[in-house]
Design a protein that fits this description.
The complex is a heterodimer.
Chain A (H helix, E strand, L loop, with lengths): L1 H28 L13 H11 L5 H13 L14 H36 L4 H15 L2 H16 L11 H31 L2 H8 L4 H38 L5 H10 L3 H29 L12
Chain B lengths: L2 E14 L2 E14 L3 E5 L6 H9 L7 E10 L2 E2 L5 H7 L4 E4 L13 H12 L4 H14 L5 H4 L9 H13 L5 E5 L7 H17 L3 E6 L2 H7 L2 E6 L2 E7 H6 L4 H8 L39 H5 L5 E2 L5 E2 L15 H7 L6 H6 L6
Parallel strand pairs in B: 3-8, 3-9, 6-7, 7-8
Antiparallel strand pairs in B: 1-2, 1-4, 4-5, 9-10, 10-12, 11-12
The chains are: A mainly alpha, B alpha/beta.
Chain lengths: 311, 355
């Protein structure tokens, strides 16, 4: 196990290095620079500013400096917010995003599992159709539409929850979390339903029945764990979807999260913030995938991790 | 001998999109205490469905008992509620399935899987149940059971998994053990080992066994009595000797002729022509008539009743009717009948007494 984790960490570092290099070159390929948007500068002033931020140096040198600083977790200073360190900016902004992401992931998967289980165990009944309907809505309605609808109906018309911003504590997070969770909820509900139905038709379920197990025992003791395995596989992509989803949802709800800052940074070519945020998201995703792989081994004994304890 | 199970005129249908499939069309048999009854027949003849019906393991949404009863312990199993049935399954009646590769839960240790019916049906503590599981694994010939109960199914070979499935089936000392083609999915050497184990267990425990197979070689090995099934009906039932050496139904003749044998040197193995009838719309008379070279006019019109051959031997063929014409069974069957001196065909073939 330790050997496996060690190997995975090496790979993770390698992946991050590649992502950093790739983002760096992509960004440099974009037309314009952080300074070019404010066009009131004379050529002399421009050169002075470029020199200050090291933008006058040849690209390989810029890349070298950048990578060196990144190892020290220093992503430079923001261009748009005077002299603010990117690392600090991210840390200050990560809180709301993190809360939203985690809440949405929990609500999405657990809600999806419950919905999927109900659909599978009450196959071809009103319960099943209802859950299918919710899932279809969840998949086909984009999160931003859903977010606006929630804002309007619950926030404005109903008035029991804040329409936006991050000023009412946990209450502020409810609507964005729901908007964000719909996608994962729908996906996991469909997955669990399909898998449960398939698992319930397997021979080992018949054997469990032949042992005298009751319906509940069969569903939860025997079928559930096996139906969970494919869902774990899509947890990685689901989490990735949450990150991109949060970019939009944070904008709509005007939540001071990373996503909102990220979009702003792209608009003004704030290189250091873009890079820093990209790296932050990458680390997050890679960690999620790593956790998913570990979970896999726990749920499915057939997937023994390489170098793991063979019994 | 005491009857432990009586299946009376059982009729069962499946409801499909294509219509009603009459999978079991009036099956009668009984099982005596301690005996092994083999049910043989080709795929789709209803042998597995019959036993799954006894266990009530068929999907309730699509299957329906049309008629008849299954008497066990004074109760009609077709009428029991799910809850009552759960108390019987795994305790009084248990089952061994065909494919050991898929019949164990891949995410549960085999110890837990063996202990499950023990904990469910017997008042034992976990530790006692574990001891019992270890004992059962020993019984089915699994080496190092103490370590192996902590392992998962994928860590066992196919033959070992079938031993585990057998251990699960035996966990509560069932009164009836149903073995649904327990050797079909195994390769030949392992088949022999599992059969050896089953025969060994037959001696050790006093459980009655229903053994489903399409392998007549296996039948000769393990069974006391044999029921031959065809298109949802039992067409012939008798002791092993009666079925093997004095078969009466043309379908049984066909089955026995298509069995490879070491002493009959023929260039080509016999195969029954045609395919089994469509049970969406079963034929009117004897369902085997269309494939049988011995079919008579009445076979196409009326379902033959059971004719008594001996106290233990019955066959549903019009050939046994007193008015039926004399026929000569296939040569290989006559060869078999020579070992059964009282066979009417054998005497007939010798030019002896005819009816």
């Amino acid at each position: 196990m330790a050997k496996y984790v060690f190997k995975r960490v090496i790979y993770m570092i390698l992946t991050l290095f590649l992502i950093a290099s790739f983002t760096f070159s992509l960004m440099k390929m974009l037309p314009g620079s952080p300074i070019s948007t404010s066009s009131k500068l004379t050529p002399n002033q421009l050169a002075a500013v470029e020199a200050k931020y090291g933008l006058d140096k040849p690209l390989p040198v810029q890349y070298g400096i950048y990578m060196k600083n990144m190892v020290k977790l220093d992503f430079g200073t923001s261009f748009q917010f005077k002299e603010a360190s990117v690392t600090e900016l991210i840390i200050n902004r990560a809180g709301p995003s993190f809360i939203l992401g985690i809440q949405a992931l929990i609500l999405g998967t657990i809600g999806g599992i419950i919905l999927g289980m109900i659909a599978a165990l009450r196959q071809n009944t009103a319960w099943d159709y209802g859950s299918t309907l919710i899932a279809i809505f969840g998949i086909s309605i984009p999160s931003f539409v859903f977010a606006s609808l929630l804002q309007y109906w619950i926030g404005v018309k109903g008035g029991f929850l804040p329409v936006g911003l991050w000023e009412n504590g946990w209450k502020s997070s409810i609507l964005p979390t729901i908007a964000l969770a719909m996608g994962p909820l729908a996906t996991s509900a469909r997955f669990i339903r399909t898998e449960m139905i398939e698992v319930l038709g397997t021979d080992y379920i018949t054997l469990a029945k032949a042992k005298g197990a009751s319906g509940i025992e069969i569903a939860f003791k025997h079928a559930f764990r096996n139906a969970l395995i494919p869902l774990i596989t899509v947890m990685g992509p689901l989490a990735a979807g949450l990150v991109t989803g949060s970019l939009v949802v944070e904008q709509i709800f005007a939540i001071p999260g990373i996503g909102e800052q990220f979009v702003k940074a792209i608009n003004v070519s704030d290189y250091s913030v873009i890079m820093g945020t990209t790296m932050f998201f990458s680390v997050l995703l890679i960690l999620v995938i790593f956790i998913v792989d570990i979970l896999y081994g726990i749920v499915d004994p057939r997937i023994r991790l390489a170098g793991g304890n063979k019994q | 001998m005491e009857k432990i199970l009586e299946v009376e005129n059982l009729e069962l249908s499946f409801h499909t999109f294509a219509g009603e499939v009459k999978a079991i069309r009036g099956v009668n048999f009984d099982l005596k205490k301690g005996e092994t009854l083999a049910i043989v027949g080709e795929s789709g003849s209803g042998k597995s469905v019959t036993t799954k019906a006894i266990m009530r393991l068929l999907p309730e949404s699509s299957s329906e008992f049309k008629n008849g009863q299954i008497l066990f312990d004074g109760k009609d199993l077709t009428k029991l509620t799910d809850k009552e049935m759960q108390k019987i399954r795994g305790k009084d009646i248990s089952m061994i399935f065909q494919d050991p590769m898929t019949s164990l839960n891949p995410t549960m240790t085999i110890g837990k899987q063996i202990m499950e019916p023990i904990l469910k049906h017997q008042k034992l503590s976990k530790i006692e149940a574990q001891k019992m599981a270890i004992y059962l694994l020993q019984l089915v010939g699994m080496p190092q059971p103490e370590q192996r109960i902590k392992q998962y199914p994928h860590q066992f070979s196919g033959g070992q998994r079938q031993r585990i499935v057998i251990a699960i089936a035996l966990a509560c000392n069932p009164k009836i053990l149903i073995a649904d083609e327990p050797t079909t999915a195994l390769d030949v050497t392992i088949q022999a080992q599992i059969l050896e184990l089953m025969k060994d267990l037959q001696k050790k425990i006093d459980t009655s066994i229903i053994f489903i197979t399409h392998d007549l070689g296996v039948v000769a090995n393990v069974a006391d009595r044999v029921a031959v099934m065809y298109s949802g009906k039992i067409v012939e039932i008798g002791t092993v000797d009666e079925i093997f050496y004095n078969p009466q139904h043309p379908y049984t003749w066909g089955l026995l002729s298509s069995m490879p044998s070491l002493d009959v040197q023929e260039a080509k193995l016999y195969a029954i022509p045609g395919t089994p009838p469509d049970l969406l719309d079963p034929p009117k008379g004897d369902s085997f008539a269309l494939r049988s070279e011995y079919a008579m006019q009445i076979d196409l019109e009326e379902i033959p009743p059971f004719f008594k051959v001996s106290d233990t031997h019955y066959a549903a063929t019009w050939l046994l009717h007193p008015d039926a014409p004399e026929v000569t069974p296939p040569a290989t069957i006559i060869e078999r009948m020579k070992r059964f001196p009282s066979s009417r065909y054998y005497k007939g073939a010798n030019g002896g007494a005819t009816k």
